[in-house]
Write a structure and sequence with these properties.
The protein is of the alpha/beta class. The protein has helices spanning about 50-60, 75-85, 95-105, and strands at about 10, 15-20, 20-25, 25-30, 35, 65, 90-95, 110-115. The chain has three helices and eight strands. The termini are far apart.
Length: about 120
């Protein structure tokens, strides 16, 4: 994976600042590319909403770093099961913690995807 991962400079107010550019709404970062993500709450999180990550598979994604919103909560069982079947690990935490950890892990060259629900 190329190490052109965007940095998360700030979060809050319903979006993120990535490498100096403001992005509204939730984000999915895969293969060092940030894209808008339609999930706005943990209740909307489904295996289908993570299809790009699941399709990439273990060869491209070691684990998914999931920012679940303002408060940490366990993702729905179908999401956990789908990731396990794909051989992709899952780390979940509140979005502020996930945004901070994302920068550390990408600096280490980890093969991860990040799904971050905006706060």
């Amino acid at each position: 994976m190329a190490r052109d991962a965007p940095s998360i400079d700030a979060y809050g107010g319903g979006g993120f600042r990535l490498s100096g550019e403001r992005r509204e709404g939730s984000l999915l970062i895969l293969a060092d590319e940030a894209r808008s993500w339609s999930v706005t709450s943990l209740a909307e999180l489904t295996p289908e909403s993570l299809e790009p990550v699941l399709a990439a598979g273990r060869a491209e994604v070691e684990f998914l770093l999931l920012g679940v919103g303002a408060r940490n909560a366990q993702p729905p069982r179908p999401v956990r099961d789908a990731l396990q079947r794909a051989g992709i690990g899952l780390e979940f935490m509140d979005t502020p913690a996930a945004a901070r950890l994302y920068n550390v892990l990408t600096a280490e060259g980890r093969r991860l995807a990040a799904a971050l629900i905006a706060v």
